[in-house]
Design brief:
Layout lengths: L1 E4 L3 H5 L2 E3 L1 E4 L14 H13 L2 E2 L1 E3 L14 E6 L24 E5 L4 E5 L22 E5 L20 E6 L2 E5 L11 H16 L6 E14 L8 E12 L5 H9 L3 H15 L10 H22 L2 E2 L21 E2 L23 H17 L4 H12 L1 H16 L9 H15 L3 H10 L2 H5 L8 H7 L4 H13 L6 H9 L9 H11 L5 H9 L8 H6 L19
Helix pairs in contact: 2-5, 3-16, 4-7, 6-7, 6-8, 6-9, 7-8, 10-14, 11-13, 11-15, 16-17
Amino acid sequence: MGFIPCLKCQPLHQNLLLNVLKLTSTYGNPMNGRPPSTALFRSCRLRAMASLIKSIHLEHSLPIFLLLSTLPTIVFERNDAGPKKTKKCFHSSSGHSEEASPAVNCRSASGDYTCLLPHTATALPGLKHQTDWRPISGLVVLDSSTSDQDSLCSLIRNGPFPSATCFSLQGQTWCDLWLWDGDGRAVLHSSVREFLGSEAMHYLGIPTSRAASLVVSDDDVWRDRFYNGNVRKERGAIVLRVAKSWFRIGSLEILAHSGELDLLRMVLDHVIDEHFPSINLYDPNRYLAFFSRVVSETANLMALWMSVGFAHGVCNTDNFSLLSITIDYGPFGFMDSYDPDFVPNTSDDERRYKIGNQANVGMFNLNKLLQALNLLLAPRQKQLASQILEGYSEQYYRCFTEIFKRKLGLLGNDDEDNYLIAFLLKLMEDSRADFTMTFRQLSEISQDQLKDLSIPKEFWALQDVAEHEFFSHWVNLYLLRLKRNKGDSDFERRKRMTGINPRYVLRNWMAESAAQKAEKNDFSEVRLLQQILQFPFQAQTVAERAGYAQRPPAWAQEVKISCSS
């Protein structure tokens, strides 16, 4: 197995309180086409979520797979003796399986595992405590209290421990699994994309989960990337994700759907207590205050995504964080040519999650959150909550405008600012100008050069926009607006703009190039991008040599990304 450490792991983890540690980059989505099993979900997740969950204190870089204690362990181990048809592996509160005890063979889509119950874990020689365990391909060790066996376990080989969450509960270390038929075990290609994508977003200043590490396995994973019957063997991998919380809108939606109102209230109170300290937990209107914060911060996140041309790809309720951070990097993409219909996910035939529709989808998801909260609200509170949601569009529009004003170097307020922004975006759309580099090159060009329409050859994106018949008209309006910046200079304008308009983003073709090399055991470009994307606003010689600020290569248009790639 290989290991790529997190860039600057020490600052990332030092004194960081995490509620959840999440392993792998793919998992089943209980609210996305799969009917939820209330009983299974209750026993496997909700009891833990509704309990008083203590934060994990990470002092330094995490060892992979080793958030363990000396408690009895559940071991999932590959059974190479041959397939054994067992339809379910679910343990009752007595700690015994319905099929066999003490060992149960768990049948899955792509292989068989043996599920060893806690009192048989000693079958693995030398497994005494966490420091004795070493990462083994196809093996994961999970801790649990023996007093609640029914919160364990169903093993899915086609996605081992997808979305495992580890936390401290009543002084013991637990690891909680999503017990849904997964989307497939993570492969190296998608893991490289997630590893680089989440780090790129962080250094762009976008709230996001982080990638602590990328672990490469020698296991083979069969994957039909584009659902066309072309199944191919790929290399397995795991991204270690970290975030302050992994609670999503879907976490509350499924509780409401199942009628688990007591658990819904307990989870909400926990989230508020842990992550919204300004809200009084004893305030009868606390859920209104919570909803108002989520609406406001989601609007801001959607505007931030748009400001860097980021399309998430799968904006369902299970991929929208209650903390309004970017999570679950799947078929995401940074837009090259400006196109409101840009869809990075080739699986999205209906273009539901196109970049120009993300703000609307945010509204849709918030409405789903409101439906869940309504079960706990009084009639008057429901009315107020609806009014809060109605304000989402205005909040998004305000955030979007303020961010794009900064991207254009505008100070103060002017009635023409909205028109100026919309005018430029229309020119960019018509000319299919590069989104990132148009704003970046506006940050670097002087006002004198713009006034004379003397655009240097290296400003290739601006040259594309300049071909539009109305570009000169927009330039005149822009220069007049800049003159109304009080106490400003051209030098200060360019300094501000280069601090908000990145020169480098993780374009799909860059991620594809790095992933293809990684599949051949060449991680040089992964490390190169990891370093460059730490400083996206600074021109870097090595990045310029690599062509990361140049016009995308012709083959970039052929790059396809799906939920399975």
